[in-house]
């Protein structure tokens, strides 16, 4: 049988060979920072230098670090040395300032007597001295006024630039920088040369309105000068002499009573009601009939919406409307405000047009003709109209609400415009009829304080 092989021992790892001694470079004096043939000790804690130069040891000592062979250097060694140099420089500067301050002479000789103030009135001064001091004071006042005017001009300009759009403001500032760059330099010496022209700024202020010049009638003075001149010196194109005073105006006969009335013009014609701004060129709402008053009275006493029907196109179309509840009117306003916040409604005219359209969609009760029959719900939701028989939110016309704040009027509008009011002409016709209904309701509401209202609702005679 073959003999079993013995396990071989692992060979020890070979050490790195020692590098050869450092050879001196040609033309370089001194010794290298590390001894020739000596390695840097690499440990898991970092690199520890075997030996440092004397200069490095002295720099570490100045930083408060006493280095010993094999000691690990901190990772932020450069920052420590930089801070140490800064502290040494500060200490040296403070010591130098303290040393030099002791040698400085006092600002004023201690033996100097105190300053004596002597006041004198300007009127008591001699004329020459008075003129000199007046010129000095006037010069100081002018300088202060100029400084205040420049400060106000800077404030006004900053305010004007702040109100400009960003692109316009940057364009104005760039134009001024270009003008300053192309401006010729001031003459050397300050005086004796041509005065430097002030820098021109862009005109941001609105232009001033210059009033027309005053015209003076000086023909009398012209005639007087021309009379004093000899005939041979008078110009050939001399103006004619001023005529005599104009004759007094003839007395006009007194105007008649009709002519004495002031002419008020077209602006005095009243076109709108001063209280409700209703256009007066439109016909008044007809007097409500007995049946309309009776139905309105029943709606008020029964606390239910008031309804009214109208025939259009010679009896071919019949449309009916109803009054709204307070909650339904609030829903129309909420829908308009939401669309305005979303940026869909820009002006106030758009807002009120939207509110009127939402009111029309809810007030429309039925639209019937020989070609179609549209009977619409009489309430938006149970929350807005609890007494309604049919609700928009319970029909298939409205999708299920995803947002509790949704009023549902968007679905009502989509259904009416796609199923009922499909054309613009029909939409305007129904809107005009709805306005007629709303005017009737307003007229009936305005008559509640009239004592004849109850008498008119009695038994017809």
Uncertain spans: 190-194, 456-461
- Gross morphology is flat
Class from helix and strand fractions: mainly alpha
Radius of gyration: 52 Å
In percent terms, what proportion of residues is strand? 5-15%
Order of helices and strands: EEHHHHHHEEHHEEHHH
Helix-residue proportion:
25-40%
**In which order are the strands of the major sheet placed?**
3-4-5-6
Q: Could you report the average pLDDT, rounded to the nearest whole number?
A: 75
For the largest beta-sheet, the strand count, sense and barrel status come to: 4 strands, antiparallel
Number of strands: 6
Number of helices: 11
Distance between the termini: 147 Å
Note down, in words, how this protein is organized:
By secondary structure, this protein is mostly helical. Among the domains are: 45 residues, no CATH class; 45 residues; 167 residues, no CATH class. The chain has eleven helices and six strands. The strands form two sheets. The chain has a four-stranded antiparallel sheet. A two-stranded antiparallel ribbon has the order 1-2. Strand 5 and strand 6 form a beta hairpin. The radius of gyration is 52 Å and the shape is flat. The N and C termini lie far apart (147 Å).
